Amino acid sequence: MHGTHSSLWMWRSAVLGCGFTLVVITSVHSTDPKLQIRESKPNVTPLEQPAISSPLIEGLKKKTEAVKVPEGTHEQIAVIEVGSKLLPGMRINSFCLDREGQLLAACGSGPGEIRVFDPDGKLLETWKVPIGPEAINVDEDGSIYVAGSGKLLKLDSHGKILVTKEAPHAKAVKASNAKLREQVVQQMKSRSSAVSSMIPRLENMIKQLKDKDKKLTEQDQKRIVSYERILKQYKLMAKAEEKQKEPTDAQIDAQVAAMSKRKMRVSSLSANEKEIFIACSAIKGYGYDVWRMDKDFSNPSVVVTGLRGCCGQMDVQCCEDGIFVAENSRHRVNHYDRTGKLLKHWGKRDRNGVEGFGSCCNPMNVAVGKEGEVYTAESNLGYIKRYSTDGKYLGFVGKVKLVPGCKNVSIMVSPDGDRVYMMDLTRNHIIVMARKPTATTETSQKKS
Fold first, then answer.
1. Beta strands in 189-311 (DSSP E)
2. Which strands make up the sheet holding 151-155, listed edge to edge?
3. 14, 22 contact by CB (below 8 A)
4. pLDDT at 210 over 70
5. Domain hosting residue 356, numbered range
6. Between 20 and 30 A from 308 (CA), which of 221, 358, 425, 443?
7. What's the whole-model pTM score?
8. Where does this protein have coiled-coil stretches (predicted)?
């Protein structure tokens, strides 16, 4: 189970011994848990595994090495330190390129900063903003749009704030506070009922093993011992939860506040000649929506719903051809028109090649080049690829040296396509990829 479903499903696991683990998976919409027995590595228990264990990283490396990575058109030439070495105290959240090719990095949790770098990474300016800037982008006129802390800002090309307005989804979240509270209460109660309902299921599993007509194998006997141990643990958990039959108001308030904060967050923002698009958590449920509005933040409306994303990330980018969304949990890119009508989608899960998308949830981010090509970025793997707007695979751009993990890996492409930039949240820097001389020569020959 990975982060994609953390808000949709709750799971508990316990090591049964003999190389098996009992996993209890429960939907927040149902109190009926599912049981799975999974084979696990011997001599490894949950207590021995850190958040990101060395065996896990090594396993990811082996899987990556098993895939034959083609020669890319670009190579990594530098990194731009956004804050960890130059200006400590604020982490990068997102970035974009302006019309001059300068990088605008949105940093901090509020109040925050927009840090302006030249293409080679020299810090030029720092603009203070009164919000925690979560997403940033620039339109064709050079106006800068920033989203964060439930607000939308419009800045001129020098960083002066021209317009500030409450984001439409934030207003909707506040209006649905009562429903959020109901959802939280239901979720908290379902966790408690899941524990109680597990007890008879475990008892039945033990009974079925003991009632076998044939003689119990050594493996069966070991399973019975393990099941009985887990049953004892669940009975203790159920007894503890009986003492607190209803969640307290303080517990509910804390969960509602956390859920509201998550739903207020803007995952990405994009602007074209006439409109702005933002991607954020759905007001109801656990998916993602795309909102469209005018340049002055008026006339907001939801144009796309039901998107599935991982780790709080859903990337939307617009151009003359419409909007492109990296729906990472479905391993595909979706192409919509401005009204949200799905025109096409492409992509598949692919752990053995590069034309599809690998790892747990990719592509994580997209960008649209000046020639209309769609660039995709894959977290954990660091792959960058090019596709046509109708989904035809055009080639491998390159592999970025990236800290593994499921996370936002925003990418931007220079107007001439010679440079591609990717964000690495973990190291708090932006990676610079440059077109290889041989690729430049080949491109020139094709154009001539």
1. 266-271, 275-281, 288-294, 301-307
2. 135-138, 144-148, 151-155, 161-166
3. yes
4. yes
5. 73-166+267-447
6. 425
7. 0.73
8. 199-244
